[in-house]
Each structure stands twice: as C-alpha cells, then as structure tokens.
Design goal:
Elements: H1 16-31, E1 37-39, E2 48-50, E3 53-60, E4 66-67, E5 70-71, H2 72-85, E6 90-101, H3 106-123, E7 127-135, E8 143-152, H4 155-167, E9 186-189, H5 195-205, H6 221-230, E10 234-238, H7 244-256, E11 259-263, H8 271-280, E12 294-297, H9 302-310, E13 319-325, E14 331-334, E15 340-342
Parallel strand pairs: 6-7, 11-14
Antiparallel strand pairs: 1-2, 2-3, 3-8, 4-5, 6-8, 9-12, 9-13, 10-12, 11-13, 14-15
Helix pairs in contact: 2-3, 2-6, 4-6
Length: about 350
C-alpha cells in the first residue's frame, strides 16, 4: 500500500514549496535539458523561449468554474497571456484544449466560450487551434482546460532593454526574467492582492464577507507592452498567482540571488479582503491573484513607472512596495510596528483550485 508520501496531494498543485519540489524533482528531472531553448524548462520562468518565440502552456482546474468577477474561460486566456507578457513578449496566438465532464450544461459551455472570446478581444489575441475531449461524470467539476500560447519580441521590449542598460551597464539579458533583479532595484506591485483567491473561496464555500469581493482576473499584456515602450526600465516581472505575493517574491529573490525588503504599509490590500483573511486565518500575502503583476525596476524609473500604472485601469492601485538589498537573503517585511519579519515561501496556496 502506498503511503501519502508516495502519492500526489492537493498541495502538489498549490504553488509554494511542495509544488516547487514536485516540478524540480520529477518534471524537470525527466523533461529538462532541451539545449535549443534560450530560456528552458529548468529556468522555471513564467514561460520558455525557443529562438525568438516565447512559448507557454497553462492548465486551469478552478472550482467552481464560475465565480465572482470571472470564470474558467476568462481565467484560462488571461493566465496564459499574462505569463507570456511577463517575459516582455507580445502574445499573438493561442491553442485551447477542453476536457468536458459528462453532464455539463451546453449553456454553461457556451457561456465559457463567449467569455474566452471576449477576453481574447481584450488581449488582442486569438485561439487558432485546440482539442476537445469528454470524460465520464465524476469529480472534474464541469470542465478543465489547457490554453497554450506563443509570443514574440517587440520594439517595446527592445526599447525597455535599452533603458535598463543605461542604468545597469552590466545588464545582458535579452528578456525580462526572474533572475534579472539587482541590488537597489525597486519592487512595484500593480494593485491590491488577494482579490481572486477570496472570490473563488467565497464561491467554493458559500461565504459572505459583508461586501462582494470580485476576482481581479484580466489580461495585462497590452498594459505591459505600453509600459515597456513608453517608460522602460523594467528588469523583471512576475504575476503572483498560486502562493501569492510571498511565493512570487521568494522565487525572484532566489533566482536573482538578492534579498527583497517589502514595506507592509505600502502593500495594497482591500479592507474587505484584509478583514476576510483575518476572519479565516489566512495570510493575504499567500493568496493567489490573477490580474496583478510584480515589477522589478531600475531605481531611476520607479516613480515614472508608478505614475504610468496609476493612469491605467489595470494599475490604478499600484504601489512601490520595496527594494532589492544585499543586507540579507530571501524576503523580509518592514512591519507597521517597526520590526522586520521573514516572508517565507509558503507550503502552498491556502485556497485550493483557484486557477
């Protein structure tokens, strides 16, 4: 009989340390090492680069498939294009694999597909190929899907890299990668955290928090391309999905080999999300998001980037939340009471099946 240590658990899909170990110890072990990739599987960035093509595959098993502010269709398109955009690329074609559960209402399928179409139009990208399968009625939750996409280099990315090199003379990266952060660089968050995870949790458990918390799920690629081309100075970007802000910052810190100091007073959190997290015993730093981006920027451009973001619908609540440091390793927070606390990489996102 297999022990729990010998089987996959829900934590293996929840971001954080357990999922990271699964990916590195199994997936990368057997599938890594493709030498033609400029940014390969083992880099564990948001997407891969082969030649000048950015490639991403993203699966979604959110439960329920409809939740306040979104649905699995909008989530699948947004998640894929945002991961491509995080490397500085422009997504331009998607593939969609649908796995439908027997008994799913065709009206629900139509609603999901209409949402995907609308989100594709918002992102300026289209679904050009895919596959559909149907499985027996069971625990699938209606449907799951995989959306893969490809992206390309743009003049905006090239302009951004030129600006970075003006301030970091030793900068050589051709893409915006997790490993690009340098001591002194500023950390910018495009908006409030925890919205998506709490919205999905409310739908899962039938919870009411006194106000309607909606998911932040949205495509960010157009905003990111404008930011890169108009302002520049961006060295790294990452969307804080499973495992939230805590997991994403720790991943950047580890890959860049710098510490990150976050200022608690600057981290934007909606009051109702904060209250709900306190009531449920959750840390909002560990709750997943689907419409926010973490930006590492050269110090001289940070305020200009912040001003640009605040004039967009996607970044109106943006804040400069911290900076990279050589004083310590990992991620720490300057608290409101004056001390510092370690922000460790979470074991996993506290909310299951949020994406």
């Amino acid at each position: 009989m297999s022990s729990k240590k010998d089987t996959v658990t829900m934590l293996h899909g929840a971001g954080g340390t357990v999922m990271h170990s699964l990916v590195t110890d199994y997936v990368v072990k057997y599938l890594g090492g493709y030498s033609n990739a400029e940014v390969p599987l083992e880099a564990l960035d948001d997407a891969a680069v082969v030649g000048d093509v950015v490639f991403k595959s993203d699966s979604h098993a959110v439960k329920p498939i409809f939740f306040p502010g979104g649905d699995i269709g909008r989530l699948s398109v947004s998640g894929t294009v945002n991961d491509i955009a995080a490397l500085g690329a422009e997504p331009y074609a998607l593939a969609c694999g649908l796995i439908l559960e027997e008994g799913l209402a065709l009206s629900d399928l139509e609603r999901i597909l209409a949402s995907m179409r609308s989100t594709c139009a918002e992102a300026g990208v289209g679904v050009v190929t895919g596959d559909t399968k149907v499985v027996e009625k069971g625990s699938l939750g209606g449907c799951v899907m995989n959306v893969a996409g490809i992206g390309r280099r743009t003049a905006a990315l090239e302009s951004n890299l030129k600006v970075v090199k003006q301030h970091h003379s030793n900068f050589t990266a051709r893409w915006v990668l997790d490993s690009n952060l340098s001591v002194g660089d500023k950390i910018i968050l495009s908006g409030t955290i925890g919205d998506h995870g709490l919205a999905v949790l409310s739908a899962q458990q039938g919870l009411k928090f006194g106000s309607e918390i909606k998911s932040d799920v949205k495509p960010l690629n157009r905003m990111i391309q404008h930011l890169l081309g108009i302002v520049g100075g961006v060295v790294t970007m990452k969307d804080p999905t499973r495992g939230g802000l805590a997991d994403a910052l720790n991943e950047i810190s580890e890959k860049s080999q710098v510490g990150i100091l976050v200022h608690e007073a600057k981290v934007p959190i909606r009051q109702d999300v904060q209250a709900a997290c306190e009531m449920l015993g959750l840390d909002p730093l560990e709750v997943g998001n689907e419409g926010k981006i973490i930006i590492g920027a050269v110090p001289a451009k940070a305020e200009e980037i912040l001003n640009f973001l605040r004039h967009t619908s996607e970044g109106e609540n943006a804040e400069i939340i911290g900076e990279a440091t050589c004083e310590f390793k990992g991620v720490a927070m300057q608290t409101l009471v004056g001390g510092k606390r370690i922000i460790a990489r979470p074991v996993g996102d506290p909310v299951p099946r949020i994406c």
